[in-house]
Amino acid sequence: MPQPSSAPPAAPPDGRERPVAHAADLVVFGGTGDLSMRKLLPALYHCDRDGRLAPDARIIAVSRGGLDDADFRGKVDAEVRPGLHAGDAAGWDRFLRRLHHVCADVPAGRDAPAHPGWGRLTRMLAGREDTGRVFYLASPPMTFGPFCRAADRAGLVTPRSRVVLEKPLGRDLAGARHINDEVGAIFGEHQIFRIDHYLGKETVQNLLVLRFANAFLEPIWNSLWIDHVQITAAESVGTPGRRGYYDHAGALRDMVQNHLLQLLCLVAMEPPSRNDREAIRDEKLKVLQSLRPISGTEAARFTVRGQYIAGRVDGRAVPGYLDEPDDTPPTDASRHVETFAAIRAEVKNWRWAGVPFYLRTGKRMPDRRSEIVVQFKDVPHSIFSGGVPNRLVLRLQPGEGIHLLIMAKEPGAGEVVPRPVPLSLSFADTFHARVPDAYERLLADVLAGDPTLFMRRDEVEAAWGWIDPIVATWESAGDLPEPYAAGTGGPVAAHELLGRSGRAWHEEDLP
Ligand SMILES: NC(=O)c1ccc[n+]([C@@H]2O[C@H](COP(=O)([O-])OP(=O)(O)OC[C@H]3O[C@@H](n4cnc5c(N)ncnc54)[C@H](OP(=O)(O)O)[C@@H]3O)[C@@H](O)[C@H]2O)c1
Predict the structure, then answer these.
(1) Does pLDDT of 50 surpass 80?
(2) For burial by CB atoms within 10 Å, which of 53, 160, 361, 509 has the most?
(3) Nearest to 44, CA basis, from 455, 450, 437, 453
(4) Hey, which of 34, 135, 198, 328 would you mutate to test ligand 1's pocket, going by the most ligand atoms within 8 Å of its Cβ?
């Protein structure tokens, strides 16, 4: 078996201090899947290039596919390298030499014999018990518990081991508790890293710095000055080939329960007493516990669900959800699943009383855009005509950055004409550095053992506790989601959700 190169990792490209190189074995269950190929392996390559992996760190993919190490390296070389713009051939070769593949399946039942692949994995890890060990579960959620048990039975779980759980963690509170119990029976909570990749985005971390490292915002970060908050995660893509997954997930479970609620927490949380993993997560939990429950008739008033029908995106005709090409034909579940969800949420505490938090996410929207918009109240008395209240836009994608829309006078003589203009901070332009992908940051945190940007069990369960009654109301109503044409901003009811109080979704282009 080829051994990893002992050549030292390259220095960081932008001259920053050399990061800590972590001695670790990463075992990726589901290491040949879509997530691994598109996100994890590119992120690990960048970690390697920046010197975060020790010379002997290995990446061991586990799947049922009958690949050997050479096959797997060939697959990664063919599928991952083209997307990387990796000009560093030596660095890429070093990365490839770190890769291994083990063919193993989870046992069919609790007492079923282990697949022979577990023997190989055990031999590969033998003698390295003192090296950091990360089990990354990039496989279907129902395999999380069985994988952890199988690793435990094979004697692979050491006190220094960590486990990373991909989202979604269950389909409801009961399912999440089940997975948490199964994984928690093997790993301590301090070893469990529940990933929400939105938390690894630069803008999201910058939100904490913006709020808690600048004095000017805190006095106005409340219901006296803020009219409402909008949190949008829009995608222009549809769901071709993903019906099997999406029919059972839907936008609410897929995006709102995790990503959007996490963003809401970071906007609404109280200042933590220190920059500390538990202090920050304690404050986020309090926000989730303060969300006003939505169920029954309130769900009809404060939530919207839609499903896209045929339309045009980027000038291209695209089919509706039910007609997306897929091996699985549409079922009744397909007709009922929402590809768009919008909610008017409220945080019931002193800071936020009466401030709506509008959440929305959808497939086949006009463009791909994730952002948080904090809409301030208007000036108490305007002496100019045509004023527009200030707005703070935190753009997560595309083009991570922060924009503060202020009023400025249009240049020229004559009447003073105020116009909203953005004060813009683009992270890429300002810091002249590559903005790392969220997975890169989060994998580096796992290697460093820092769970601050990962969800604690109580957070995940509190989020499901808020989502479950909405799902239950939708399911008991039995009606279909409201159709919206692909390439539009969602169903009519989503605009009415804000329109009823004289508000509108922000759609403007920013630099
Ligand atoms: N793809 C994304 O963008 C994305 C985003 C967020 C979260 N996630 C989550 O990440 C996980 C993986 O998603 P994915 O899209 O990468 O799925 P995928 O493309 O279907 O890949 C699943 C991987 O798991 C392996 N696998 C499945 N069952 C297995 C078993 N019983 N024993 C061993 N290996 C098994 C598969 O290989 P074999 O079939 O060859 O065994 C494959 O490597 C899921 O939990 C998903 O919800 C994915």
Answers:
(1) yes
(2) 53
(3) 437
(4) 34
